[in-house]
Design brief:
alpha/beta; TIM Barrel; Double Stranded RNA Binding Domain; 3 domains; eight-stranded parallel β-barrel; three-stranded antiparallel sheet; 18 helices; about 40% helix; elongated
Length: about 525
């Protein structure tokens, strides 16, 4: 079976994305995860460009990677500087990596306007740099920067830059769509010309400025590329790089090509989330293959069909990439959605159960009031249990009070909540402060309940969202609060709706705690 090698540049190109900055520890942990995923090459950064990248190459040697080779990245030698005296070339060799990747100009416009040298001198930079590196490093790759733009502007010269790399001894020549503006229909004729002139292994490196980076990468493989470069989740400068979380399953599941093993592929979603966490970026639910919504079904007709045969509305099995099928609950739900959820929650219910009609009616009424259960499945499970008479009452609210006090104009307000609850025959009155009224109320409620239910110490509030449902009413508008909570095992969402944001928050907080206690 044809082997396509995956080259990851998350640690360099990915970190060039706006709002992303990886620490040294982050880079080490991501490299280990990429190795577990079966990635063949990990581009660690540009040694000499900054202290962190230089330190990475020394630090990563302390860890045993089982699949991946680490590559150092840099550029060709500078004009008028001998290759063995060039600081960038020296830094690449000092990184002592088994692979070195260098980038060189293949677009005559860049040679003229960026380097301010002759076209012939640029060819010498490429040849000298690769030949010298190849005499010291086992594997050398050449990234032909702006190759497709260069080819469209001056095809003869663009090919000459590849020939210079080939003559210098490059093991892999990578065609780069650096500006990300090349369309798929342009690739076949360009690849045909490259293959008729170059005998080295070809790679592809695309950016997503025209939203075709993944499509171009897949097409390039069909046209003969043996290496694909990209980043986890498509992170990268401007609109990002080609997304390996889409490329890898497309290669393996659609084209039936060898790139990583089946077991490694099942880690794809985990790695996607892992990189998001270290990048401090919210995971995009609608990301193909690995997103939370990638295999989620909402419409009643869809759910009914999927229950009979998942292939009716799924292009691949979610478990192959470590994902799961989800059935969403909303006003568009039908009987199939409710039955599916009953099975998921362990609630005994069949298609003739009159509770289904009651649940659907209640669901549609609540959503009409502004409730939303797509992100609040914890609240929906409690609603179903209540309809079946299965919802337990763990405490009674006797009252609460929330105060916000600002003592001085240059000080932050102080929030304090006092709550009175009854558990069995015990009355508990507790007060707590917090970073805002909702946090204070959450702290007071937990403080009151934890002596009765110590398992609540495991649960924590992870996210808090507020949505104004009718902006035209201004401060009198109805508010929807979505809360995400979690413990060491799972996460769950709950919802509350009211004209009063504190009351909406209270509803969601109570559901969150009730869900945890029912789960236990």
């Amino acid at each position: 079976m044809r082997l396509i090698k995956i080259y990851d540049t998350t640690l360099r190109d990915g970190s060039q994305a706006e709002d992303i900055s990886f620490s040294l520890e982050d880079k080490i942990r991501i490299a280990q995860k990429l190795d577990e995923l079966g990635i063949h090459y990990i581009e660690g950064g540009w040694p000499g460009a900054n202290p962190k990248d230089t330190e990475f190459f020394g630090e990563i040697k302390k860890y045993k990677l089982h699949h991946a080779k680490v590559s150092a990245f840099g550029s060709t030698r500078k004009p008028k500087v001998k290759v063995d005296k060039d600081d960038n070339i020296i830094a690449l060799l000092n990184s002592k990596t088994p692979v070195v990747t260098i980038v060189g100009k293949s677009w005559n416009l860049h040679v003229r306007d960026a380097l301010h040298i002759s076209l012939e001198e640029n060819l010498e930079l490429i040849y000298d740099s690769i030949k010298y590196l190849k005499s010291h490093v086992h594997e050398v790759m050449f990234d032909a920067e702006h190759f497709f733009d260069g080819y469209k502007g001056n095809p003869q010269y663009a090919i000459k830059t590849l020939k210079a790399a080939e003559d210098g001894g490059a093991d892999v020549i990578v065609l780069c769509d650096t500006n990300g503006g090349t369309l798929p229909n342009e690739l076949p004729s360009i690849f045909d010309d490259v293959k008729s002139n170059i005998s080295r292994t070809l790679g592809i490196h695309t950016h997503n400025d025209a939203e075709v980076a993944v499509a171009n990468s897949i097409l390039a493989v069909n046209l003969g590329a043996e290496q694909v470069q990209g980043t986890i989740n498509g992170y990268g400068e401007r609109c990002g790089n080609a997304n390996l979380c889409s490329i890898i399953p497309n290669l393996k599941l659609k084209l039936k090509l060898n790139c990583i093993t089946d077991e490694q592929l099942r880690k794809l979603r985990e790695v996607s989330y892992f990189v998001d966490e270290l990048a401090n970026m919210r995971h995009w639910n609608h990301r193909p293959y690995v997103g939370k919504s990638a295999f989620a079904h909402k419409g009643g007709i869809h759910v009914s069909a999927v229950m009979k045969n998942p292939e009716t509305y799924e292009h691949a099995r979610p478990e192959l990439v470590g994902n799961t099928q989800r059935i969403l609950i909303s006003e568009q739900s039908g009987r199939g959605n409710v039955l599916w959820k009953a099975k998921e929650y362990g609630i005994d219910m069949d298609s003739q159960d009159p509770t289904i009609r009651h649940v659907l009616h209640e669901l549609k009424e609540l959503e009409n009031q502004g409730f939303q259960f797509e992100g609040a499945e914890g609240s929906f499970e409690l609603l179903m249990k209540e309809a079946k008479g299965m919802r337990r009452k763990f405490f009674d609210l006797k009252g609460f009070r929330v105060m916000v006090e600002k003592r001085h104009i240059d000080e932050e307000p102080i929030s304090e909540a006092t709550i009175k609850i009854q558990v069995g025959d015990k009355l508990e009155i507790t007060a707590a402060e917090g970073n805002g009224p909702v946090n204070a109320l959450d702290n007071a409620l937990r403080k009151a309940l934890e002596k009765f239910y110590p398992e609540l110490k495991e649960a924590k509030l992870i996210d808090f969202k507020v949505r104004i449902l009718d902006e035209r009413k201004g401060t009198e508008a109805k508010t929807r609060v979505l809360i995400e909570s979690g413990d060491h095992q799972s996460r769950w969402g709950t919802v509350g709706v009211s004209e009063n944001i504190i009351e909406a928050s209270w509803q969601a907080l109570v559901d969150s705690i009730d869900y945890k206690l029912h789960k236990e």
